[in-house]
C-alpha cells in the first residue's frame, strides 16, 4: 500500500514538472501573443495543480491526517488564470491590434466593446470593415 | 522514488523559469513580458511546493499561497495600467 501511494505521488510530481515545462516551451515556441497566451494559462496551471495534489497526498501519507488546504492554491490558480489571460489579451488588443483592419465586422452599428473609450459621451467606435468591402477589395 | 521524481520536477521548473526569463528579456510586446512574469510567479509556486515536499514541512505552503495572491494582483495591476493608464479609477 505504501509503495502504491509513493508511486502515485511520484507520477503526479513528474506530470506536474512536465506540464510546467510544456507551458514554458509553448511560451517561447508559439508565433504571436494571442497564441502564446494559451500555453502558460492552461498547461502551467494544470502542472501546478498536479504538483499541489501530490503535495496533499504526501502530507496525508506523512502525517496521517488528511487536509485539503493545498486545494486552496489550486482553486485560486484555476479561478485567476482566465482573468489574467483575459486582461493580457485585452492589453494586447488595445496596443497592437487595429479594430478596423485586423478584426471582423461586429455586425452592428457599435464597435468592439474592448475598444470603448473611458468617456461614454465620446463618438461611437468604428464597427470595422464590412464583408462586402473586403470582397470589392479582393476584386480590385 | 519520490526523491527522483522531485529532482526531475526541480529540473523541469528551473528550465521553465529560464525559458520564461528569455521571453521576459526579448518579448516583443509589453503583454509578452507581463505574461512571462505571470508564468514565472506560477513556476515559483511550483518550486516552493516541491521544496516543501522535499523538506517534509508544510511551512512553505503559506509562502506559496502568498505568492499566488501577490502574483495575480500584480499581473492585474500591470494589465490595468496598460489598458487604462491608471490602476484604481
* Low confidence ranges of chain B: none
Which radius of gyration of chain B do the C-alpha atoms yield? 15 Å
Question: What's the rounded overall pLDDT mean of chain A?
Answer: 82
Number of helices of chain A: 5
Question: For this entry, what is the oligomeric state of its chains?
Answer: heterodimer
Summed up, the domain count of chain A is 2
CATH class of chain B: Mainly Alpha
Strand content of chain B: under 5%
- The CATH architecture of chain B can be given as Orthogonal Bundle
Low-confidence stretches of chain A: none
Number of discrete domains of chain B? 1
Report the sheet with the most strands of chain B, covering strand number, pairing sense and barrel closure. Answer: none
Organism (chain B): Thalassospira mesophila
Main location (chain B): membrane
Protein name (chain B): Cation:proton antiporter
Transmembrane segments (chain B): 6-22, 34-53, 59-83
Plain-language structure description:
- With 140 residues, chain A is an all-alpha fold.
- Chain A has helices at 2-29, 33-36, 38-63, 70-96, 131-139.
- Chain A folds into two domains: 1-81; 97-140, no CATH class.
- Chain B has one domain: Helix Hairpins.
- Chain B is built from three helices and no strands.
- Chain B starts with a helix and ends in a 5-residue tail after the last helix.
- In chain B, 42% of the residues are buried.
- In chain B, helix 1 packs antiparallel against helix 2 (30-55) and helix 2 (30-55) runs antiparallel to helix 3 (59-84).
- The model of chain B has no long low-confidence stretch (mean pLDDT 89).
- Chain B is mainly alpha-helical.
- Chains A and B meet through helix 1, helix 3 and helix 4 of A and helix 1, helix 2 and helix 3 of B.
Amino acid at each position: 500500500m505504501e509503495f502504491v501511494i509513493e508511486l502515485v505521488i511520484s507520477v503526479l510530481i513528474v506530470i506536474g514538472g512536465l506540464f510546467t515545462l510544456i507551458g514554458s516551451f509553448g511560451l517561447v515556441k508559439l508565433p504571436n501573443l494571442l497564441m502564446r497566451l494559451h500555453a502558460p494559462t492552461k498547461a502551467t496551471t494544470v502542472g501546478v495543480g498536479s504538483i499541489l495534489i501530490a503535495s496533499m497526498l504526501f502530507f496525508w501519507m506523512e502525517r496521517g491526517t488528511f487536509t485539503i488546504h493545498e486545494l486552496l492554491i489550486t482553486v485560486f490558480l484555476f479561478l485567476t488564470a482566465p482573468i489574467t489571460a483575459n486582461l493580457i489579451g485585452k492589453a494586447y488588443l488595445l496596443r497592437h491590434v487595429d479594430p478596423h483592419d485586423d478584426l471582423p465586422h461586429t455586425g452592428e452599428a457599435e464597435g468592439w466593446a474592448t475598444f470603448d473609450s473611458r468617456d461614454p459621451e465620446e463618438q461611437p467606435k468604428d464597427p470595422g470593415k464590412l464583408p462586402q468591402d473586403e470582397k470589392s477589395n479582393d476584386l480590385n | 522514488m519520490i526523491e527522483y521524481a522531485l529532482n526531475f520536477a526541480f529540473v523541469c521548473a528551473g528550465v521553465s523559469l529560464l525559458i520564461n526569463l528569455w521571453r521576459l528579456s526579448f518579448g516583443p510586446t509589453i503583454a509578452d513580458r507581463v505574461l512571462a512574469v505571470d508564468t514565472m510567479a506560477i513556476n515559483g509556486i511550483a518550486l516552493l511546493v516541491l521544496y516543501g515536499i522535499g523538506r517534509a514541512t508544510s511551512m512553505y505552503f503559506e509562502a506559496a499561497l502568498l505568492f499566488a495572491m501577490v502574483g495575480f494582483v500584480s499581473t492585474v495591476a500591470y494589465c490595468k495600467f496598460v489598458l487604462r493608464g491608471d490602476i484604481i479609477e
